[in-house]
Design brief:
One of its GO terms (molecular function) is oxidoreductase activity. The protein is of the alpha+beta class and about 170 residues long. The protein has 5 helices and 4 strands. The structure holds flavin mononucleotide.
């Protein structure tokens, strides 16, 4: 296959794959590095490189699950609280091998939408790199991430746009 055919196949094959379909296998550090590196190659206006990614694995990921569950419980009116939803938050995070928080940093040098667009393109690069490496992944954007405090340090000029789940399939 020539380069154009390879690219077309990867773009066509890319799908969101959810934690229930991930195996327990570890994604190798080499592949994680490759996926993150691809993100940093996304186009960005005035070279602001507005994406901020933090990788959660093992113990840190377990803490993220607990914090997300606690936020859900604290922000949900009691009569709307669902035990299933609460458990599902934990299940999804625990089932993923690696989670990357997607944060945009607003530099003030270009309009905010341009930095969100550049960060989204970085995420698309991760999606495509996952596809090429047979890693399942998806972008999750629940409201809960607005309240993350212990797992993530969000500066005044930053916003968390969600979590990128990854797992071997
Ligand atoms: C900005 C963004 C946010 C998303 N947030 C969620 C989400 O919160 N929950 C979810 O199930 N999927 C989410 N997705 C994944 C979409 O549901 C998915 O891309 C769509 O269903 C199309 O499927 P595909 O990715 O396999 O083409 C998000 C995708 C994008 C681009």
């Amino acid at each position: 296959m020539n380069k154009a055919e390879v690219l077309k196949e990867i773009i066509e094959q890319r799908r969101s794959i959810f934690p229930k379909d991930y195996t327990d296998a570890e994604i190798s550090q080499e592949i994680i590095d490759e996926i993150l590196h691809s993100a940093t190659l996304a186009p960005n206006h005035k070279r602001t490189k507005p994406w901020r990614f933090k990788i959660f694995k093992g113990e840190e990921k377990a803490k993220l699950a607990s914090e997300m569950q606690a936020i859900y419980k604290a922000t949900q009116p009691e009569q709307l609280f669902l035990e299933k939803k609460y458990n599902d938050i934990g299940f999804k995070i625990n089932k993923a091998n690696v989670i990357v928080s997607i944060v945009v940093n607003f530099s003030g040098m270009v309009p905010e939408w341009e930095e969100i667009a550049a960060t989204s393109m970085a995420v698309q690069n991760m999606y495509l790199s996952c596809t090429a490496n047979n890693v399942g992944c998806y972008w999750s954007s629940p409201k809960i991430v607005d309240y993350l405090k212990e797992s993530l340090t969000i500066e005044e000029n930053q916003k968390c746009l969600g979590l990128f789940y990854m797992g071997e399939v």
